Amino acid sequence: MTLHIVNQSPYSGCALSDCLDAIAEGDALILIEDGVYAAAGQHGLPEKQTFCLTADANARGVSIANSVEGIDEARWVALCTQHNPIVSWFK
Amino acid sequence: MSNLVIDGQEILLDKEGFLRNLDDWSPKIAEALAAQEDITLTDDHWDVIRLLQRFYREFELSPAMRPLVKYVGQHLGPEKGRSIFLMQLFPPSPAKIGSKIAGLPKPTNCL
Amino acid sequence: MPQSKSILALCRHAPYGNTLAREGLEAVLACAAMDQTPEVLLINDGVFQLLQQNPEQIGEKNLHRNLQALPMFGVEILYVCRKSVEQRGLCPDDLCVPGAEITLLDDTGTFIGKFDQVLSF
What we know:
Mean pLDDT of chain C: 96
CATH architecture of the largest domain in chain B: Orthogonal Bundle
Oligomer: heterotrimer
Largest sheet of chain C: 5 strands, parallel
Structural class of chain C: alpha/beta
CATH class of chain C: Alpha Beta
Shape of chain C: globular
CATH superfamily of chain C: DsrEFH-like
CATH class of the largest domain in chain B: Mainly Alpha
Structural class of chain B: mainly alpha
């Protein structure tokens, strides 16, 4: 299964919506950096397998919706080793 | 690499011997560039040089080895569309040496 | 070197506005020159790379012309996201790369998931 990583705010560009258009059933999604602004909800995120770097959300004062799981960097690394391929949506 | 002097005119080369100004190219300059590689140009060389220039006009880039082999095969026939044929003409790196003599930029993906 | 991993170049950006489209093309050509031929998927604004272009007046090299070299490098099929084409009001007939076959995809997610490595541009 694919791991998608988004680092752009959903308000500044299309990275998240483009990713959601190309996500397959069972894929995982991680929101990092400015991508965490989507973690508050309202962006049509998948109900399962959606993660958010807690440190990036805390840094920005973003509260993480219930359907999104906050994770630390060790868990992020674990997800990278458990998924293939990994697709970056960075622009 | 030192510059070329052709008919009293200095032709600028980069450090690998490629023309700095691609518009400088002429058959005479090709012969001089070939001589620097210890190559004497024959009809087979000229066929490939013209094809390299055609490739560049068509795609606006210099070929790597595999596309060059394929392109030569399409235009000069399967007998010549082989790496051994090109290797004999432009050793040791036909895409790079051929591009240099044909007055093309260095292939960007030539490592 | 035999090809050990399948590689996808995910090309998401229009030509000329930034350097990503060109970087993607150059990465594909470099991989192919090393006998690690990737597949290419044009998606989102990447589908604009397939329009006819005349960039001479803005001093750029013609990316569409460069794309036509892909079949020579062993990339003979260009995969294109159908939804991206339709969202941009383009018609599949507008998209053409001489020498390459254009294949429109409806399910890009499943397609992407089949590769070992995905390079995003």
